[in-house]
Specification:
43% of the residues lie in helices and 27% in strands. It contains eight helices and 13 strands.
Length: 225
């Protein structure tokens, strides 16, 4: 697949004519990253903007004890990164692939010149930023206030809605997810998350398989506090 095809599939760029997409294709080199690749740490941050053509990323922070707290999961078509005139809140965080991922990068000067001449795209970016901050605040509130079961349920419902493939009453999360990875996302131990998943399985709220999780969203909503 060529870069132009990928750009044309991204909802963020639907308002752009084909000529603009062709110009962006020249601007943004692509790179392929394997699963569980650390893209950025707070110490290795560098300016730039990126779009996800394929795959998924996890944005997280880490406390002094080494526990990880997920701030968001990004998928195909999402934008992340920082430049002087435009911030998506990813400067001081860890960014890691949770699937094989194809990224397109844009340099600061090129992107700012491109954005200045296209106000409709600038408005779309502002909307994306607002939605990202709302999602992050909601997730942080759950991590701070909810018990472990509610934190797991909240995260599973979010992932099911964002990346779920419908299968009857259940939505299968469309990427491999181990108990340890789920524990990292909610800042808990693998053993405690496994116990929660067993409880949810007995109540037919989730179905688990080898590195896969399916969620009955309706039952999850009824069970969460």
């Amino acid at each position: 697949m060529n870069k132009l095809w990928y750009l044309s599939q991204i909802s963020m760029f639907n308002a752009l004519p084909k000529e603009d997409l062709m110009e962006m294709e020249k601007m943004g080199p692509m790179s392929t990253l394997e699963r569980n690749t650390i893209i950025q740490t707070p110490e290795t941050f560098h300016e730039g903007l990126y779009t996800i053509k394929e795959g998924k990323l996890r944005l997280y922070k880490m406390n002094a004890e080494g526990k990880q707290f997920t701030l968001g999961i990004l998928g195909k078509g999402n934008l992340f990164g920082e430049i002087d005139s435009f911030s998506l809140g990813t400067r001081d965080i860890f960014i890691e692939t949770i699937d094989k991922t194809l990224l397109c990068s844009f340099g600061k000067e090129q992107f700012e010149a491109f954005l200045t001449s296209r106000p409709q795209l600038a408005l779309k970016f502002l909307k994306v930023l607002s939605e990202r901050l709302q999602e992050r605040d909601a997730l942080l509130e759950q991590l701070a206030l909810g018990d472990l079961r509610d934190r797991v349920l909240h995260l599973l419902m979010k992932l099911s809605k964002q990346f779920g493939i419908e299968d009857g009453d259940y939505h299968k999360i469309d990427f491999s997810l181990t108990h340890q990875e789920l524990a990292n996302m909610v800042g808990a131990t693998r053993e405690s998350v496994t116990m929660v998943l067993k409880e949810l399985s007995k109540r037919d709220i989730v179905r688990t398989g080898r590195m896969s999780i399916e969620v009955n969203i309706n039952k999850a909503k009824e069970y969460i506090h």
